């Protein structure tokens, strides 16, 4: 069955890199996602990666996927105070109409 | 519509009353999800609708919770005999469904406070 886990909290200094980690249990995941939730708002997609990829980079964001260890990470370079939010990883299993399952979310605090 | 619309944005009710929360998904999206987010907590999956298939209700916490989706579009989440522990933000999301990337678009949520 699907189970997605994340650490609850991460604190970094402005300008440093942030690395948010996620583990999942189902090896049949096809798509893995990172969503961002700013205070008082719904979630917005940041990026996603297909399971046959190891890495995806988009400006300050780098997603790394280790399929052997079922580990997904999101690296934010040059973290800014505007990056303070809750970050959720999510997975979608193989199959036409599988639902997307979310992790518990990691609250990122950026210290000026 | 351009996005996922939820109403009401805020609801304060007394313990024991029934409440209805509405979600208007993006036109043409076949998949619709309801989640609950309590203060400081992650997302708790409640229910998933996909086209005309039977909904996945595995996340509903008790029989006081129910949801329907009429005509494959608008969805209503109903909570009967509300309890204080039902206080949370209820988030709705929709997606195109299918075997592709299935990016979810979320509404802004309905904040429920049970006194």
Describe, in plain words, how this protein is organized in 3D.
- The complex is a heterodimer of chains A (112) and B (115).
- Chain A is an all-beta fold.
- Chain A is built from no helices and eleven strands.
- Chain A has strands at residues 4-6, 9-13, 18-24, 29-37, 43-50, 55-58, 61-66, 71-76, 85-93, 100-102, 106-111.
- Chain A is globular, with a radius of gyration of 14 Å.
- By secondary structure, chain B is mostly beta strands.
- Chain B contains no helices and ten strands.
- Chain B has strands at 5-7, 10-13, 19-24, 31-37, 43-50, 65-69, 75-79, 88-95, 105-106, 110-114.
- In chain B, the strands form two sheets. In chain B, strands 2, 4, 5, 8, 9 and 10 form a six-stranded mixed beta sheet that branches. Chain B has a four-stranded antiparallel beta sheet with strand order 1-3-7-6, with no helix packed on it.
- The N and C termini of chain B lie far apart (33 Å).
The biggest beta sheet of chain A is recorded as: 6 strands, mixed
Main β sheet profile of chain B: 6 strands, mixed
**Range of strand content of chain B:** over 45%
Shape of chain A: globular
């Amino acid at each position: 069955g699907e189970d997605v886990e994340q650490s609850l909290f991460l604190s970094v200094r402005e300008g440093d890199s942030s690395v948010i980690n996620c583990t999942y249990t189902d090896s049949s995941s096809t798509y893995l996602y990172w969503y961002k939730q700013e205070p008082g708002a719904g979630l917005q997609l940041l990026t996603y990666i297909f399971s046959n990829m190891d890495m995806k980079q988009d400006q300050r964001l780098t997603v790394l996927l280790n399929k052997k260890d079922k580990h997904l990470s999101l690296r934010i370079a040059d973290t800014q105070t505007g990056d303070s939010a809750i970050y959720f990883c999510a997975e979608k299993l193989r199959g036409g109409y599988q639902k997307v399952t979310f992790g518990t979310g990691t609250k990122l605090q950026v210290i000026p | 519509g351009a996005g996922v619309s939820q109403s009401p944005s805020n609801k304060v009710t007394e313990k024991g009353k029934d409440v209805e929360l509405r979600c208007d998904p993006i036109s043409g999206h076949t998949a619709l999800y309801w989640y609950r987010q309590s203060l400081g907590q992650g997302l708790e999956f409640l229910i998933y609708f996909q086209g005309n298939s039977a909904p996945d209700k595995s996340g509903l916490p008790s029989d006081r919770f129910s949801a329907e989706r009429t005509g494959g579009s608008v969805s209503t989440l109903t909570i009967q005999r509300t309890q204080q522990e039902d206080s949370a933000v209820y988030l709705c999301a929709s997606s195109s469904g299918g075997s592709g990337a299935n990016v979810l678009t979320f509404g802004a949520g309905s904040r429920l406070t049970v006194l």
